[in-house]
Hints:
The structure holds three protein chains of three kinds.
Chain A: E1 2-11, E2 14-24, E3 29-33, H1 40-47, E4 55-60, E5 63-64, H2 70-76, E6 77-80, H3 92-98, H4 112-124, H5 140-153, E7 158-162, H6 170-184, H7 188-192, E8 199-203, H8 210-213, E9 216-221, E10 224-229, H9 231-234, H10 237-244, E11 248-252, E12 258-262
Parallel strand pairs in A: 3-8, 3-9, 6-7, 7-8
Antiparallel strand pairs in A: 1-2, 1-4, 4-5, 9-10, 11-12
Chain B: H1 2-21, E1 33-36, E2 42-45, E3 52-54, H2 57-65, E4 72-75, E5 89-90, H3 100-105, E6 110-114, H4 119-127, E7 132-135, H5 144-155, H6 158-180, E8 187-191, E9 201-203, H7 208-215, E10 219-220, E11 229-231, H8 234-240, E12 244-247, H9 256-260, H10 269-273, E13 276-278, H11 282-285, H12 290-302
Parallel strand pairs in B: 3-4, 3-6, 4-5, 6-7, 8-10, 8-12, 12-13
Antiparallel strand pairs in B: 1-2, 9-11
Chain C: H1 8-26, H2 34-46, H3 57-90, H4 103-115, H5 123-148, H6 156-180, H7 184-192, H8 202-219, H9 222-228, H10 232-237, H11 242-264, H12 270-282, H13 286-310, H14 319-337
Amino acid sequence: MLDVKEITAGYGQKHVLKELSFSISEGTVLALIGPNGSGKTTFIRAASGIIPLLKGSIRVDGQDLHKMNSQEIARRIAVVPQARSIPPAFTVEEVVALGRTPYLNWLGKLSDRDQAIVDQVLEQTDLAVMRDRNVAELSGGEQQRLFLARALAQEAPLLLLDEPTTHLDLQYQVNLMQRVYRLAHPSKLEQAAGMKARTVVVTIHDLNLLSRYTDLVGLLVDGRLVEMGTPDEVLRPDLLSHTYHLPLDVIKDASGYSLVTPADDPTAL
Amino acid sequence: MKSFILKISSLILLGIMLSSCASPAGEAAPSEISLVDGLERTVSMEQPALRIVSLSPSTTEILYAIGAGDQVVGRDSFSNYPAEALEVQDVGGSMGSYSYEMIASLQPDLVIASEINTPEQVKSLEDLNLTVYYLSNPKNLNEIDDLLEVVGTLTGHEKEASELAASLNKRIDAVLATVAKAASKPLVFYELDATDPAKPWTPGPGSYMDELIQAAGGRNVGSVLQSAWAEISIEELMVQNPDIILLGDSNYGVTVEQVAARTGWENLNAVKNGSIYAFNDDLVSRPGPRMVEGLEELAKIFHPELYQ
Amino acid sequence: MSKKNNLQPYVVTSLILLIAGVLSIAVGSVFISPRTVIDVIFSAIRGEVSTLDPNGVYLQIITDLRIPHAVLLILAGAALAASGSAYQGLFRNPLADPYLIGVSSGAGLGAVAAMMVRWPYTPLGLMVIPAAAFAGGIITVLIVAQLARVGKTVPTTNLILAGVAASAFASALTSALMINSTGELRRALVWMMGGSTQTGWGPVWGILPYMVVGLSGLVIIGHPLNVLQFGDEQAQQLGIRVQRVRWYTIGLATLSTAAAVAYTGIIGFLGLVVPHIVRLIWGGDYRRLIPVSMLGGAGLLLIMDVIARSVIAPQEVPVGIVTALLGGPFFLWVLKRSKSQNYW
């Protein structure tokens, strides 16, 4: 569904992504991990059309992204940025309604269908009860969920989430990743209600959420995809220790999910 | 019958021809005034103006001086001389704009504008169907005559105007004759504005004041500057070292004591000798009859020895 | 962002505008009783002469002075308030006003430079100063946009910086011209203080085309500005063509502001304060903020002008002085009264 073919992109002279390639199919949650500066956010920018590709191409459902204008891209790709600063003069419902922008004309009037989608998304993300609240009154986790809702209102088959769990309390991290997973793997009930499986690419720092909530993990180092596979395949002690320059161990929790921990006793320095 | 009709017709024809040839001198026809004003507009009136609005203090002074004071129905805010002018309706102008409503409501038959008025203001008055005459400033003492003559014509006071012009000329000649006998010409500094005492404003070459100072038998410090109205530095002033300092800004509250107290000014000859005098700037900044009074005042200050 | 009551802001501001308009026509340095005003107007409509105004002077004052002056100020007030709102949205800056990127300093320079020459007393000659002001404003913004350009984009920070620099430069040149002039100094100062220097319908016809284009264009830019509040990147990711919106907004705001300044001088504070007042009362949704600010700005400017014309009649205080004196405190009062915490 998403075909990234040898893309090179960066800022000015500096190339951050170097001939990056991968493909994922519909209904997959791909986590991009890697040290800071490896190009995770740059990938999101390149994939959403913010920065140009110097080489290569990105295709969504077969269509070349960089041949489209921003409105067309926005209907196919929805970005969920980090909820760091939201302009305070909006209500929850208004922010979600902005997700319909790719379908509205300059006057911004919502049709009945647009409004119906907004209502549905508010329900889906459990934000309906606070639809009239000012965004400044929301907690960090709720704000992040709001940004997810806005992206959902775009009805885009591909979602890109940029470090959504950073800065969040643990319960919100888990809550968010659960939702993200369900978006790619809707239940039978949800499928019957018409919900289609989305494809998700999420950049993330916390390695311990990967095993439970993602299908594929891509390790980005210095702009290149060093390894891509299932969480178990990628979360290997040798690979991770080398990447993060730190002795790391991978252990399984009670349910069999992989967890990453430092290998040495940290108090013995 | 035919010859009778012929005679009558020719008589009638003769009568018509004669009446059309009748010269205006023989009848009391209305006199027409037609002048070209300072904006090169032709201003025409069927008779001298009876309801006049003056837009500048100098015009007001001229109107009263030639006896047309009773004909003034409106004047600008700065018109303060003679005292009778203060009784006349104020039409604005202190913040740069006049009340056109007030002017229109006075229904004047003539509005006299001057160089302090903008072309837009003249146009606005024209748009209200008012007759406007734009009076240009005289460029030197000789042109005051023309100024008086024009206003005299506009107001029907030609005689008083020419009499006044003659008496003013006599007084000017008297001053010139007197100061011609002077042994020397004092160096004079005329202060217009010293908000920044390190760089006071003074009239420069080509300005009216420059001419007046010279006509009164003095030399203007400002004549070394570049423009008609310029700043002079305190250093240059010290180099020039004027004999007399005239405070043209005394109307705004500047006093002799204040000047003597300014830093650096204590070195000037004029300050040491106490030759600092307040001066009524209205006498020399308003183009009109009082300029001659201003000239006489200057001459008395510059050459007291000739006026005992 | 929204406060419900969809029609209320429009009704309230239209009412204010209506009352202000009536006051504008009824009040002036010459007292005309309300009864006389009504009689004069209705007689004129019927094509007769009012018995209360046999000489036609009151009719002249009302139709040749007060009404065109009011219309001119309505257009100017609407343009300044709309441009101020649009710029606050575009630059995401509560201190933005219509003059942010140099249009007023450029217009001032154009006007003062034109004043240094004696133009012939002809219809064309009388248009030179407003035309020079208009051109000066537009050219300065074009220069600023060019200076701020980075490739095909014009980052807002660059625009603000270039605007500040250009304004400082133009102001310095203007001051130099003013100091060097002798007779024209006062004229230049009066123009810069804000307030119309020409009377009658001429100025209105002169700026009408620019106002129609500018105002109608700004009214519809609200939704993209809402989206832009989240930043250029997110706005583009939501499908907004950010550069296009930027050029469009700057172009229309400059056009209408330059037209206003050409005939009303530099009226400050209005474009900054009116959007904030509207925002405090009815929220910051730009789809509503811009049109409501237009109505509010027009009405408020008329009221300030009535004050300027009558407080020390027959003197007429330049209206820019009144907006500056009253604008700030009035805004603080509204701010105190408002209970909103999150209005920006």
